[in-house]
């Protein structure tokens, strides 16, 4: 057997406007752009099972975790706006030192699901939506 221990590589999400998404994640969360690139060969299209697909990518440095944003051409169906309890819903979790202060400093146009809430686990959480309605959990562990 090949020694091939899996490890997490990145969290990826599809966006409709790569520049707007990069602006959101760099402005709101302070992530740095680690790289931007495009892929559009036949093997990519076959690999993602979308005929003729190309992708514009941005890799963001989330303090050791890679956040991958990708804008596809052709674009698929709009399935954004899922609630956290919908099957297939996903979210990115971002740790902060002070959830209340982070919440207070959010730009006025950032949509939140609630104010920060301290759960039975002792963590304080709240969710925001990015420009494509993707969910981002802000957590103070």
TrEMBL record:
Would the keyword Transmembrane helix be found if you checked this record's keyword annotation?
Answer: no
Q: Does the keyword Endoplasmic reticulum apply?
A: no
Q: Which InterPro entries match?
A: Glyas_Bleomycin-R_OHBP_Dase (IPR029068), Glyas_Fos-R_dOase_dom (IPR004360), MMCE/EMCE_epimerase (IPR051785), VOC_core (IPR037523)
Mention one GO molecular function.
Answer: metal ion binding
Q: Which UniProt keywords apply?
A: Metal-binding
Q: Where is the VOC domain?
A: 7-141
One Pfam family from the record: Glyoxalase
Q: Which domain of life is it from?
A: Archaea
Q: What is this protein called?
A: VOC family protein
- Per the UniProt entry, what species is this protein from, by scientific name? Halospeciosus flavus
Q: What is the lineage of its organism?
A: Archaea, Methanobacteriati, Methanobacteriota, Stenosarchaea group, Halobacteria
């Amino acid at each position: 057997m090949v020694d091939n221990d899996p490890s997490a590589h990145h969290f990826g999400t599809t966006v409709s406007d790569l520049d707007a998404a990069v602006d959101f994640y760099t402005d709101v969360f302070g992530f740095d752009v680690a790289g931007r690139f495009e892929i559009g060969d036949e093997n990519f299209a076959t690999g993602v099972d979308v005929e003729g697909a190309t992708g514009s990518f941005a890799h963001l440095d989330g303090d050791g975790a890679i956040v991958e944003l990708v804008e596809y051409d052709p674009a698929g169906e709009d399935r954004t706006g899922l609630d956290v309890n919908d099957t297939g819903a996903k979210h990115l979790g971002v740790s902060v030192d002070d959830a209340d202060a982070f919440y207070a400093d959010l730009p006025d146009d950032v949509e939140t699901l609630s104010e920060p809430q301290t759960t039975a686990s002792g963590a304080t959480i709240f969710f925001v939506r990015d420009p494509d309605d993707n969910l981002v959990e802000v957590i103070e562990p």
